[in-house]
Amino acid sequence: MSWLTNWTWPTRLRDKGIIGMNRRNIRYIGRYNSRRLYPLVDDKLKTKLLAQQYGITTPELIGTVTTQFGVKHIGEMLTGHAGFVIKPAKGSGGKGILVIEKVEDNAFIKPSGAKLSLTDVERHVSNILSGLYSLGGSPDVAVIETLINFDESLMDYTYEGVPDIRVIVFKGYPVMAMMRLSTAASDGKANLHQGAVGVGLNIATGAALRAVQFDRPCYSHPDTGHDLASLVVPQWETLLNLAAGCYEMTGLGYLGTDMVLDRKYGPMLLELNARPGLAIQMTNGEGLRRRLDLIERQPDGVPPKQRVAFAQHHFARQSELVDSKPVESSDTTSTGA
Amino acid sequence: MSRLMFYIIVGLLMVVGIATSVQRHVQFEIPWLPGEQRQVWEIEAGITFNAQNGPVQVDLALPSHQAGYRVLTENTASSGYGLAYQADELGRTARWTIREAVGSQTLYYSVQMLVSQDARSPIQTPPEVPVATPWESPYDTAASQLIEQAWARSANNATFARELILDINGERQSENARLLLTQENPAALVVRLLNQAGVLAREVSGLLLEDGRRRQTLSSWIQVFDESGEEWSIFHPLTGEQGKPDNLLLWETGGRAVLEVQGGTNSRVTFSMMTHDQPASAAVRNHYSEDTLLNFSIHSLPLEEQALFQTILLIPIGALMVVFLRVLVGIKTSGTFMPVLIALAFIQTTLPTGLIGFLLIVAVGLIIRNYLSYLNLLLVARVSAVIITVIAIISIFTVLAYRMGLSAGLTITFFPMIILAWTIERMSILWEEEGPKQVLIQGGGSLITAVLAYLAMNNPWVRHITFNFLGVQLILMALILLLGNYTGYRLLELRRFKPITDDEKPS
């Protein structure tokens, strides 16, 4: 009977308010995300240009390469930029992203220390254009943007990769958030199923609630050994407002927003996802159902700031990582909004 | 679209699907199970006559659907003759014609009759009472005496007929009867006396079915209608026994001659017969029936197209299996309906050979695809290269298997090559992006789905039902629509989300 212990009952999941794939697809994505809006989020260049229109901070765009002819001019485009990232506009799963930390004597240096020549960079851009990394192999566009210098306060919580913050935004309300910390097991990637640590965040404060690796609870970062209970995301309210603003920007009702914290510019939108996964429920130790039900009862047309305040007020929770330490009163944050 | 509309559509599909299936089951007696055997009689009528060097016209009465028997197919063999089937309210006939014929002629007619309990005879029009040919003296008094006696002892047409038959042929045979029998044969005499008394009756011809009998002739039976002229019963002309024996096939029921030959002499018709059991589905395939819109069926197509449809109609079963496994169980597959196509290939190759062949092709394909990834090709070119590789692998394995005397290996060519190439491509990308574990999960999921789809599609009962009941397709459609509306948990999610429900307990 030992294998049975790995399974639970549907009723217990329902009590916890867990949402399954089928429910997510039919009830939320199918109902709130209009198919014609997908290209806005599936093409990173479109997302970026749209974000600029709506005043949502994104990493600065250095330029784009759209034709094989343009590849030859990439050297000129890059001069004067210390660090940059080249990514395919329609890439998925982080494929085809080239990060150059600094340029020294015409050599492009990756974070790992490997040196690339200009020809190597040109070949990479050429591959992006020919569709090597895009879904279905369709011709693509290379997007070049400045490198994010992520906030030092988060440095200890991650191994190699950039930690990103995922906020689920439902009808414009931020409903649940988590931070993804890359580990040695995840090979510097922030993919939870590859072994990244997922940290559930308190919507009210941005403080860590609970952390899981491979779906099992953990209390410190497996590589840096840093205690996760002390993790608090700085500029939390700005970040939530940024996330909430993505609803007006895209019109997608059920949206996953991926953000990073830049040392200089603060929270920045990295990319959007029209089909966000359900793992966020695992990191928060709570189902999305009750929160989504509550939001569905709210009227439309509420401005972003009020939506954020509403979410911070209603979705405040206590951390499971610290023993009975009360969370700062959610009232202070909501009045500040 | 409103939910109500959705459920109305699903309900409608269900009802129509079930109704047409039940209709086919009832009307055409297609059994729900494939194993059922049905008894079929093969009867051959041989007509012989001597042609008189001139035009010949041969009319042969043909049997129709009747209580206990159903006509499946009929054939004729008659070289040089023109042939026409005719039908009127008295029955069906076949008419052979030829401009000139010399010498001994033989014509054949064969019919397959399905033994079926529920078969009903068509409504029979009762004959009109013929103008009575008056008896000469002294037969007239004998006849009226016989009628009077039998009438006195009977209550209705049926009992009157029985009494009359017993008086004429039974132990009670009287002087009167013996006298009349010098004028007419027993059956004809009974019918003549019945008609004289105002009872609707006629002589019909039937064939007693016995397995393996040859050169049989038809026997005479007496059909007596009741007072209303709607119900009738059959009487044995000698014993007076009422009711049709189970093995009696009524050949001609119109009171007409069974065989009429113009332009020939010495004509006779003899019958040979044999019986065999055949699977109900085969019996159904031979069903002789008018094709109306209602009995719309695959069986009206030529055999070759039928075989094709047998496979096509199975695909929805595979699709249902995929929907079930993905929506309710949560198995990941590479390529949504790739497992169905693999399962179709398994049907051709049998499961063990199919599994081995599939694993061999994909494994070797992955190794070669791995090398191709170093060449940095464009996607379309790369997949095309993989397709050629797959064809090469299949050719090599087929030749090797043949050399080693493994004929099973030859069936490997049934695999859909383009699909295999895409599978290899996807697996390879998956390997690079997510590692070998995901390849095993998705590849294994696809294979499990394919095997389950194969088991469902190869099930004899499923094959029988999908092929014979087109209404089932509508039911499958309704089921898939319902599954597409399911918002509950997948089976594997009960495992995935288990840790959340755990930590509730300690705190």
Automatic annotation (TrEMBL), chain A:
One Gene Ontology BP term is: SOS response
Where does the UniProt annotation place the signal sequence? none
A single Gene Ontology CC annotation of this entry is: cytoplasm
Classification via Pfam families: ATPgrasp_ST (PF14397)
User: What positions does the domain ATP-grasp occupy?
Assistant: 48-303
Question: What domain of life?
Answer: Bacteria
Query: Could you give a GO molecular-function term held by this entry?
Result: metal ion binding
Question: Which controlled-vocabulary keywords does the entry list?
Answer: ATP-binding, Manganese, Nucleotide-binding
Please name the PROSITE patterns in this protein's record.
ATP_GRASP (PS50975)
Question: Matching InterPro entries, A to Z?
Answer: ATP-grasp, RimK-rel_E_lig, RimK-rel_E_lig_ATP-grasp
Q: State the name under which the record lists this protein.
A: Alpha-L-glutamate ligase-like protein
Recorded source organism is Vreelandella boliviensis LC1
From TrEMBL, chain B:
What's the superkingdom here? Bacteria
Give the transmembrane region(s): 307-329, 341-368, 374-397, 404-424, 439-457, 469-489
* Chain ranges of the 7 transmembrane helices usually fused to an inactive transglutaminase domain: 257-500
Q: Which residues form the Inactive transglutaminase fused to 7 transmembrane helices domain?
A: 24-183
UniProtKB keywords: Membrane, Transmembrane, Transmembrane helix
> Pfam families attached here?
7TM_transglut, Transglut_i_TM
InterPro entries listed in its UniProt record = 7TM_transglut, Transglut_i_TM
Protein name (Swiss-Prot/TrEMBL) = Gonadoliberin III
